[in-house]
Design goal:
Helix content: 40-55%
Number of helices: 14
Number of strands: 0
Number of domains: 1
Oligomer: single chain
Low-confidence stretches: 14-29, 253-265
Largest sheet: none
Order of helices and strands: HHHHHHHHHHHHHH
Strand content: under 5%
Radius of gyration: 18 Å
Shape: globular
Distance between the termini: 34 Å
Mean pLDDT: 86
Structural class: mainly alpha
Length: 265
């Protein structure tokens, strides 16, 4: 990669490195425990949320095959540990697109959407970069050219080894396995086969070229819709508590909980 391209990518990432983010705050997993009712959350989840996310929280509800990318996997305790309850609450209430565009009333919360790289990377480079990223979870060669691009453009969020633990995700380096990400939503862990299986090649191409917001608005990929018009705040907090305690809590066994890929490693 030329020095010119390297410099352009660095400039494209300025807002990623310096834009104010939601740090840990005091609203982690304990928020839902304080605000949410477990029985209410279970009832709502089994009536509404299961259709996409599945009764087991594995992202394989009745409608999952018609959703691109496929729904969030809650049984993956490593990734779920990195998301704050505040982020999840806002996504459920206002929809993910509104959260990513920072169009929600909660001005204390500032999300970080993946930026677009189509103005600095050619289409062929994006396709090669996808192969490079797939290799983190599936194995295979990683070219020196793509390593240079990845280190310049992607590692600040996803980490040099692709674990989603770069400097924007965690100020503590090297980051521990379980941490609350400084960036919300947490950067994807590219080494996790279970999570990466959610994304087909077309989506990853659109994501890198257009950015997360562009992949939704321009390429029409699916995302979480708002439920604030049908669910009260109390019901949403109940759902978050149910998800945490039933599927995502790495220190609590539950009859419905199945280990995610990252938990088995």
């Amino acid at each position: 990669m030329s020095l010119t391209l390297h410099a352009v990518i660095k400039r494209a990432l300025v807002f990623v490195s310096f834009y104010p983010l939601l740090l840990a705050w005091p609203v982690m997993a304990q928020t839902a425990t304080k605000k949410g009712d477990l029985a209410t959350g279970k009832a709502v989840y089994e009536e509404i949320c299961f259709a996409c996310h599945g009764l087991k929280g594995d992202g394989k509800g009745p409608g999952w095959l018609n959703t691109k990318p496929s729904p969030q996997v809650f049984i993956n305790s490593v990734y779920m540990s990195r998301l704050t309850d505040e982020y999840i609450f806002n996504v459920v209430k206002y929809g993910k697109l509104a959260v990513l565009k920072r169009e929600i009333p909660n001005k204390k919360f500032e999300s970080l959407a993946m930026p677009s790289f189509g103005h600095v990377l050619e289409d062929d480079q994006i396709r090669e970069l996808i192969k490079f990223e797939r290799a983190f979870s599936q194995g295979g060669p990683q070219s020196a050219e793509m390593r240079e691009i990845f280190d310049a453009a992607c590692a600040v969020c996803h980490g040099k080894e692709g674990r989603g633990d770069g400097e924007r995700a965690s100020s503590v380096q090297p980051a521990p396995k379980y941490f609350v990400s400084d960036a919300q939503p947490s950067p994807m862990n590219l080494t996790d086969l279970q999570l990466m299986a959610r994304f087909n090649e077309d989506f990853l191409f659109a994501l890198i070229k257009k950015g997360k917001i562009g992949s939704i608005e321009e390429e029409k990929f699916d995302t979480m819709q708002p439920f604030g018009q049908v669910l009260s705040d109390k019901e949403i907090w109940g759902v978050i508590r149910y998800i945490r305690e039933t599927f995502a809590n790495p220190n609590k066994e539950h009859p419905n909980k199945e280990k995610g890929y990252a938990d088995q490693k």
